[in-house]
Amino acid sequence: MVLAAYLVLGFLDTLAILAIMFKLFRIPFFEYFKEHVALSAIIACSSYLFRVEVGSSTLDMIAQISMYIGFLIFVIKIRIVKSVIIACAGYSAFAAIQVIISVPIFLSGFMNSAVVKDAFGMDINIIQVVSELITFLICFILHKKQWGWSYVIRPPHDFFVKEPSNPLEKKLLVVAVVVMLSFLAIFIAYQHVSFYLVTAINIVCYLWLYMISRMRDYYDARRSRMDRLPPNKMEERL
Questions:
Q1: Does 166 score more than 50 pLDDT?
Q2: What CA–CA distances, in Å, run from 17 to 23, 112, 128, 210, 218?
Q3: Cα(144)–Cα(159) distance, integer angstroms
Q4: Which range scores top for mean pLDDT: 71-80, 166-175, 200-209, 229-238?
Q5: CA nearest 169: which of 213, 226, 125?
Q6: Quick check: 60 and 47 in contact, CB under 8 A?
């Protein structure tokens, strides 16, 4: 029964992370639902293997991030840099949601903060279920309001065709990748870092992604206007 609860909640955790990944970047979620279910089952089993049998939550997190990135690249067919950004953004968003839920519960004395180290138990299960429900609710709101970053072209991407972009956007994307991977490295190394640190880094990362998205929208609008200009006018602009 305990094993079944661990696998089911691990499955739902992964499904929630995939949902927030896709909805943050306006990528259709249910078009790839079978793939999501398959990956969620694989990650739930691998999580049990690493976290319970091997006893290493660090290996569990590294394996999960690697599988998310590989899934986005090889199954969903999203370019490598953007796959890293999407995976890191979704994973860190779910981590932030869990932290935001956990801290008030711990401060109220309803639960002991030591439960975050447990693989099993009613207390950690409650935090998981609440985190999943809130994540799915956020995804629903993002879908209904059509919110999210728009600079990731709808997959599948053709890796052999160069995607139009400006040099500054590329540099900002590289910085975003470095910052997010650094955050995940800190999170994996220390795991139970400060609530304020997790929240602050997430805010910085999402503001950065918002800036890149706005830049992409401006660049696309400018290219669209240029494409509509007569050849002689275009030459004058250039």
A1: yes
A2: 10, 25, 12, 20, 29
A3: 31
A4: 71-80
A5: 213
A6: yes
